[in-house]
Amino acid sequence: MSVEAINNQPKQSALMAVLASFWFEFRQNRGAFYGLIFMGILLMCAFLADFISPYSPIEQYRDALKLPPVWVEGGTWAHIFGTDALGRDMLSRMIYGSRFSFYIGVIVICICLTVGVMLGLIAAFNKGFIENCIMRLMDIILAFPSLLMALALVAILGPSLLNAMIAIAIVYIPHFVRLTRAQALSELGKDYVSSSKTMGASRARLMFINVLPNCMAPLIVQATMSFSSAILDAAALGFLGMGAQAPTPEWGTMLADARQYIQSDPWMMGIPGLAILFTVLSINLIGDGLRDALDPKMKTSKT
Amino acid sequence: MFSFLFRRLLVLIPTYIGITLTAFVFIRVIPGDPILVMSGERSPSPEKYAELMHAFGFDQPLWKQYFDYVGNLLQGNFGDSIVTGRPVLEEFFELFPATVELAAFALFFALIIGIPAGIIAAVKRGTFYDHTLMTISLTGFSMPLFWWALLLIVFFSGYLGWTPVSGRISALYFFDTPTGFMLIDSWLSDEEGAFKSAVMHLILPAVALGTIPMATFARQSRSAMLETLGEDFIKTARAKGLSPFKVTVVHAFRNALIPIITVIGLSVGVLLGGAILTETIFSWPGIGKWMVDSIFRRDYPVVQGGLILIATIVIMVNLTVDILYGVIDPRISKKGH
């Protein structure tokens, strides 16, 4: 065994032990476990959409308009979830739509985490003027109801899925800034930070290597919860016609299309709505599980 | 207490400057010429264009435009709607009672169900009741509001035919609306059945709008109650021989109030945001629908003024919540922020 291998071994096994204890805690929570399974299936759908979806999501089958799903009278196995008003296969649209949910969630969270954590750390490390400027700016964003702010921002940027995601990210950033700042401030008072400082650690080292890892637990929980709200808000914007544009098979936009057939063909609205509900519910269950596993003090669901 | 209040008010000044700046910048960062964007398909003649430029003050330097705008705001002049030509503030106050009525009943519905549900779940922790209540509340919390509203319409209005689909009152009734609150006005009017009609119109949107806050209250009051139920003073109260009801409600609940009031305060923003969707779906003539319509019509003075007015409400509510903290827990205002 080489010297590096011996040096690395205890480090790795310590990490494994942390992960193992985390997984043990997480698995205790049955809801979180089911949520994870559902999200796993959805992720498979998103990745394999090209292979598993029976039809193209935007191809219009003019001889099969508004076909009901297979379990309703008149439905056929050819279109398991039926077809929409333009004859597009609902199952294929749902499968492709799962891509957009992940796309929205991941992009919004990435923007929020990078910008929010940076601003939060800067505010925590620069007491006084800079901190005040950042925090007041966040207060301003928080003074507007998030959906209204996002709607107004999309109106400026122009309606599209990308702009909807940017608008939603901007609206969520203050929560990340406040959380990071509060966590960082409480860490800054601890002994390990002062000792690192006396040993001559640079400010960047203090920020990213000492303080940030200890702020991660609540940030991960916040990111999970924001992931699900981002999907809901993007669907709401799509529903109002300010998100993804036709013929994109985004679930919120599909709901908007189905709205006029709400009385005659309610399943057309039921399927995408249920998909959004289950996705958001799964992510929230995972979020609750993460909260319990990462921070016993914040326990909400069990015990 | 007063220095606490003073400090809180002082912080509002920069926030407010920022809010007016945001609303001011809003209309100026729209890609393209704001006049052409607002006039849409009808392209104005050069004379008309110059007149409009002057009327909106776009021919002035930016800093002067901003100061003029703030000066007008301070005098209560929020500009006029392009579509209706009426002052923004006047339209706002006309529609505001409808939203207050809707939001108040949604909040009422959320509180009377959410908080008891949370308390029961906390007291019966780990039991069947707890799991059922928490599953329901997490589902409510994850519900896409617009879809939930449509489901309610399909079931209660379409299938059962119990409630009307849209509006605030049946078109059959004509009476004066001195307060703007349809329930009060219809109660005062002589029209038979008007009050019932107003109630029936209100129920469905209020339930739809109140569902997400209800779930939040249930979750929050459960975790807050769990925290206080573990404290020593609860054991003391039990040891004194107080009834379980008294221990739960008087001792534990009062001390769990701070986090609960925080979420109630935060839910006002959620309600105003949710009102946008609920009012649009139920054709409820309140400020949420007004804002959405104005955004779609590119009625930018209304959007601008509406943003400032709505932000003002949110700020006022947050301030009230902060003051309430001091009343419930005197330690907070003494310690100062």
Report what the structure shows.
The complex is a heterodimer of chains A (303) and B (337). Chain A is an all-alpha fold and 303 residues long. Helices cover 73% and strands 0% of the residues of chain A. Chain A has helices at 3-28, 30-52, 90-125, 129-143, 146-157, 161-188, 191-198, 203-239, 251-258, 267-294. In chain A, helix 2 crosses helix 10 and helix 9 (251-258) runs antiparallel to helix 10 (267-294). Chain A starts with a helix and ends in a 9-residue tail after the last helix. The relative contact order of chain A is 0.14. Chain B is mostly helical. Chain B has helices spanning 2-28, 34-39, 46-56, 62-74, 88-123, 128-141, 145-159, 182-188, 194-229, 232-239, 244-281, 287-297, 300-328, 330-335. The longest helix of chain B has 38 residues, at 244-281. At the A-B interface, helix 4, helix 5, helix 8 and helix 10 of A face helix 1, helix 6, helix 7, helix 9 and helix 11 of B.
| Biggest β-sheet description of chain A | none
Gross morphology of chain A is: elongated
Secondary-structure content class of chain A: mainly alpha
Distance linking N and C termini of chain B: 11 Å
Structural Rg of chain A: 23 Å
**Helical coverage of chain B, percent range:** over 70%
Order of helices and strands of chain B: HHHHHHHHHHHHHH
Low-confidence stretches of chain A: 298-303
Oligomer: heterodimer
Number of helices of chain A: 10
The percentage helix of chain A is: over 70%
Proportion of residues in β-strands of chain B: under 5%
Task: Give the helices and strands of chain A as they follow along the chain.
Answer: HHHHHHHHHH
Q: In terms of per-residue confidence, which ranges of chain B show pLDDT below 50 for 5 or more consecutive residues?
A: none
Q: Assign an overall shape of chain B.
A: globular
> What's the main sheet of chain B like?
none
